[in-house]
């Protein structure tokens, strides 16, 4: 399974990349705003900085909701760097834009997906990735992981090439559940990725190794 980090914070992207297990980055307008990135020029500069850190797909989201403007914005984003994936919300004009982009070889990430039906439209439009939001479904007592599983099952049955990019991941257990559900990608906070490292038996076992070595070798 591929790991993307879900942030626009350059320090966190660098730290995740230095782990050696990072395959890409996803951003969204809220994550960009959180970093105080203001204006188109600064946004484009920031995306390029991310592309220089991580040699993998970087999702950059359009802010337009109108087909014509989405196309214009998405083509401009895609022209920034070969690793840029144009992120488009799963709305009517977004599906039309994804179809337009897929017919022209521009890779896309269909985002804000909360149902099998939305994921079906994203795949039929030729999206490169579909982003079901696991955490936000869990937040309303719905089953986000079950949605991931159903999308994987549907895409496998119909042999769609769209990759399932599990998003809105809240914790390490979500990552494990995405593995079990067969997601192609999980885009995660850094803490959730680092949480995979943690096990008390590893810590206690290493402490014993070191103590035994020190006891004999000084
Ligand atoms: O960036 C897309 C998605 O991962 C954001 O999810 O719920 O953490 O805002 P959330």
TrEMBL record:
What reaction(s) does this enzyme catalyze? D-sedoheptulose 7-phosphate + D-glyceraldehyde 3-phosphate = D-erythrose 4-phosphate + beta-D-fructose 6-phosphate
Which biological process terms from the Gene Ontology are attached to this UniProt entry?
carbohydrate metabolic process; ketone catabolic process; pentose-phosphate shunt
Leader sequence residues: none
SUPFAM superfamilies reported in the protein's UniProt record: Aldolase
* Cited Gene3D superfamilies: Aldolase class I
Q: Which UniProt keywords apply?
A: Cytoplasm, Pentose shunt, Schiff base, Transferase
Q: Which InterPro entries match?
A: Aldolase_TIM (IPR013785), TAL/FSA (IPR001585), Transaldolase_3B (IPR022999), Transaldolase_3B/F6P_aldolase (IPR004731), Transaldolase_AS (IPR018225), TSA/FSA_arc/bac (IPR033919)
Localization of this protein: Cytoplasm
| Catalytic residues, chain numbering | 87 (schiff-base intermediate with substrate)
One GO CC annotation, please?
cytoplasm
As one GO molecular function, the record gives: aldehyde-lyase activity
Q: What Pfam families is this protein classified in?
A: TAL_FSA (PF00923)
Function (record text): Transaldolase is important for the balance of metabolites in the pentose-phosphate pathway.
Q: What NCBIfam families does its record include?
A: fsa_talC_mipB (TIGR00875)
Q: Which family does it belong to?
A: Belongs to the transaldolase family. Type 3B subfamily.
UniProt xrefs under PANTHER family? FRUCTOSE-6-PHOSPHATE ALDOLASE 1-RELATED, TRANSALDOLASE
Q: What is this protein called?
A: Probable transaldolase
Recorded name of the encoding gene: tal
């Amino acid at each position: 399974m591929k790991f993307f980090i879900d942030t626009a914070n350059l320090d966190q992207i660098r730290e995740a990349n230095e782990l050696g297990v990072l395959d890409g980055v996803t951003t969204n307008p809220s994550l960009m705003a959180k970093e105080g990135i203001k204006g188109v020029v600064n946004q484009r500069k920031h995306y390029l900085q991310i592309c220089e850190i991580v040699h993998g797909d970087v999702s950059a989201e359009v802010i337009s909701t109108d087909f014509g403007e989405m196309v214009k914005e998405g083509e401009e984003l895609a022209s920034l760097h070969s690793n840029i994936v144009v992120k488009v919300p799963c709305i009517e004009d977004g599906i039309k834009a994804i179809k337009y982009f897929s017919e022209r070889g521009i890779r896309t990430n269909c985002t804000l997906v909360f149902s099998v039906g939305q994921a079906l439209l994203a795949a039929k439009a030729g999206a490169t990735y579909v982003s079901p939001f696991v955490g936000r479904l869990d937040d309303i007592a719905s089953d986000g992981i079950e949605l991931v599983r159903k999308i994987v099952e549907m895409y496998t049955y119909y042999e769609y090439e769209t990759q399932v990019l599990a998003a809105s991941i809240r914790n390490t257990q979500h990552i494990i559940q995405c593995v079990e559900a067969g997601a192609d990608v999980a885009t995660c906070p850094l803490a959730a990725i680092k949480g995979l490292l943690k096990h008390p038996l590893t810590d206690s076992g290493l402490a014993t190794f070191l103590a035994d070595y020190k006891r004999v070798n000084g």
